[in-house]
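Need tokens for this chain, all 415 residues.
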Amino acid sequence: MSSSPLQLVVRNRDFRNLFAAQLVVFGADWFVMVPLLVLLPQLTGSGVWGALVLAVDTGLTALMLPYSGMIADRIDRKKIMMVSNLCGLVALLLLLWVRSADTAWLALVSIGAVAVAKAFYSPASQAALPNVLDPEDLATGNAVAGAAWGTMGVVGASLGGVLSEVVGPYACFWIAAAALAGAAGLAWLIRRPLQAPRDHAVPVQRGWAALGEALRYIWARPRLRALVTVKSAVGLGNGVLTVFPLLAGVYGVGAIGAGLLFASRGAGALAGPVLMRRVLTRRSWLLPGLALSMSGYGLAYLGVSVVNWFPLVLVLVFVAHFAGGSNWVLSNFALQGEVPDRLRGRVFATDLMLATFAISISQLVVAAVVDHVDERVVLAGCGLVTLVYAIGWRIATRRLALTEPEPAADPESTR
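Here are the structure tokens for all 415 residues:
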């Protein structure tokens, strides 16, 4: 019998350390992004720099993921997590020199280096999750781990907004750097092996050959093709984040209001995985649940674009990311059940790559129009794109089911 979330966290020390490390990493991310997205428009007088920071963050992550996923399948995942966090710490210190419009470019360099570090951390930590869980705890562990991002979305975004207002953004950058040092220490405390034993009789593939094996594995299986494209729906609507600081300005609520918008996003992403845990035990619900979660995100942001009361905006942002968080944890859980350990890092990297490319595209489009188009039009456009994608994805996957065995692939297609 599976444990409750609290029992699992208390009983399983290695899962607790992995989960705590993820909490700290995600919290550090928020302690950087919220103050930085408020600071850059103040220094430059433009919303473009914030959009570029977000695009660099996701775009570089996406570019690195094919390689980093391969590394996560070949090198000790614990070491990858520790080194990634320490490299991210060093990169964050560059933000201390972002003091004027002339030095705004340093923010792109710093966030770009942090993005590379995150690109190695994310597939390693996600691929390691089943290795610290017993099989009967996998659904509960995914729900808890899926809530990590949302938990720190609430805590990190709220505190980041408040502290940015009270003590300034540079103190937040120092706190984020210290948090990454703590995350490296938590990863070091994990004792279980984070890889399944490898068959040394099978030669290790090198470079792009290893990545090509994972891509052929995905291409030969319709269910995997569906699952690695599902996060792109929310990704293509993610340009809304660029508008958050500007929307706070429209309502006259400043940095604290921007923090509340990001916190509502985090609260929804936290509640979604926790409340959708029951769906994880019913595989027949997964694909319809994914379509509904994508659609809910798009509809909620269409609502944000037409309302005029800030508290209602916060509620709709919560609803949107309740759906988005559910989408994330449902697709991760389904992928873990479909992919063997030896390919899991590369498949998760491909999944993250597609999602982050979608996010980058959305943010670059918003960067091109944000100084020329009303914020509400941007919000409506992002919501509509996600909704249309969700409808198309469901039509394309309507004949698939996760309750039946995957049809055998042509051996030549996966060789």
